[in-house]
Amino acid sequence: MNKLWSCLLLALACTSVQAGVNSNDVEGSCGPINIPTHVGPFDYRTDRQLLSLVEYGHFQPGVERLIRPMFEFFGADLDYTLKAYPNHHRALMTMARLTIKEKSLKPKGANFSAECYFIRGMTFRPDDLIVRMIYASFLVMHQRNEDAAKQLDFVLESADDDPFTHYNAGMIYADMKDWPRALRQAHIALAGGFTRPELKSRLQQAGQWREPSAQAAPAAAAASSAADDKPTAAASR
């Protein structure tokens, strides 16, 4: 998990979650991941040899900002990008925002529903927790908080003590107005050394911020120490 993801999540959190969307737009099939006639699929995190070429043709800043499509529709540009890189984090976030802009779960020009692109990304790389976090934000946008909470449960079970992940989970819990969980994740992130102020500010504005208890820091330090010991223990087996 990295700092760029935190900045991306802040941008997504600014999107309205009240847009009216027809739930009947969701398609039943999300199609194959491997498409013989299409470039890819490549892992956005590691397989970047063709990334600049794909983005130059289909994911320039005008597309990411939903200002100017490369083709006739934004959905067509994002479809191409996400077929080449199914777990392209920024393209997935843009797809989520596009459903709000167009008030449709299947944007014009896209071959699949927006949700399908998240399913494809998670199927392609189940270990990419960022995809699941963006998916959780997408679900919150469309008032599916219970489904979002399930994704966050999975992420947090897999995240150990990574402060970036806990911080971003806290931001999504804040979107859900689940203040106790947002506060807990904020405390964990702070104890892990992640000091971005936005989550604390949101909690303060909601009247929900509480300073960490005296016991929180030692507990976090113990968890961090245990996590540091894991590779050594595994190597000794």
UniProtKB/TrEMBL annotation:
The record ties this protein, via SUPFAM superfamilies, to: TPR-like (SSF48452)
Q: Which domain of life is it from?
A: Bacteria
The signal peptide annotation in the UniProt record is 1-19
UniProt cross-references to InterPro entries, sorted A to Z? TPR-like_helical_dom_sf
Keyword Signal attached: yes
Q: Which UniProt keywords apply?
A: Signal
Q: Where is this region: Disordered?
A: 201-237
UniProt keyword Signal, yes or no: yes
Low complexity composition bias: residue spans: 212-237
| Record protein name field | ABC transporter permease
